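[[Per-residue structure]]
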Amino acid sequence: MFLEERREKILTFLDKNERATVNQLAAMFSVSKETIRYDLRVLAQKSLLLRCHGGAQVLRKTLQSDLITPSSDMDIASLLKKIGKKKKRVLLARNSQTTQGNVCILGSFNVDIVAKVERFPKGGESLMAINSTLGPGGKGANQAMAASNAGAKVHFVCKTGKDQFSQFAYRHLSDSAIHSFTLYQSDDASTGNAVIYVSQQDGENMIAIYPGANKTITESEIIAISEQLKKSDVLLVQLENNFDATFNVMRLANALGGKIILNPAPYSHEILQFIELANIITPNETEASLLSGVEVTDIASAQQAAREIAHKGVQTVIITLGSNGALLYENNQFQHIPALPAVAVDTTGAGDAFTGALTAAIASGQNLGWAVKYATAFASLAVEREGASNMPVHQQVLHRLSLNADF
């Protein structure tokens, strides 16, 4: 057995069993204990496992306090050259009752300050809030939570400041269903935050975001997650991080043969420089209008917008249409998936719920039509809950789909 193959099998064993002893691994691979110790030391240096007395344990959740210093000969360009052209991986279809694909998400973590109001205030008006809460949020964190609850094996990568909210983020992610994460910290920028108004009239929301440390992810920090990208079927990104980090991680995932889903929110024209790297793009009506130059007001205009977006180099376009469901455009064919009935309590994070669930279904090998239906059902359950990070689970989604057999 080759050295790299043995180390890969060590990681696979740890991933399944959480920990292993040196004696156990030496017997398993018929090598000396010293050889295993050296393997574990090398893997630990790459932050792929945690050494402990007599063996090692899986390293799923990492708080990276210090900035990573890249080696003089390793940047994105040289890493891409080293990887070379890889044969694209094919996702095998799996039973629709299970979703266990591997997903890597580069995204944002924000602290959400939510005020529930009877209606949105007018300009210059002050309103008394019905109540207010402080909780976890950010498109990346919300989508990671949704994909995890939908059954995917998610590795989430984000960055916070070195402030009181950094430990808040670490505790939230550690206690969640997210399989693993890398949490970087910035010496200079504070943790991102969002101020959110939620209307009692219809559950709609207004959001103002301060990105903070989300916009400070470095090239070396992207290089450091290459092993996670290599193991992932799908990379999911949004636009709440700095654009060079988003561009670099998409380039790296593309070179490694993974599928890339781009959620173009919040919209920026800078997306045009790397839109061709995405296999699937998931704009809402507003983002689709800005991307295409076509104002989306109904199904017909959404179809026109989808064609324009596809012409920019994206294979598959999925436009979310709120209460009108979603529109899928692939191979010059349209499929409209209607929304499922839901009693909207809080629409904050509805798009994140849809995108995360969609990603989980695609990573598991499901066809796109079913994946969009699944994501629509997931989002219909999400809006019936308070809080952007409060997501339903896979079995609840399957139950709602079973109640809507004609959907």
The mean pLDDT is 87.
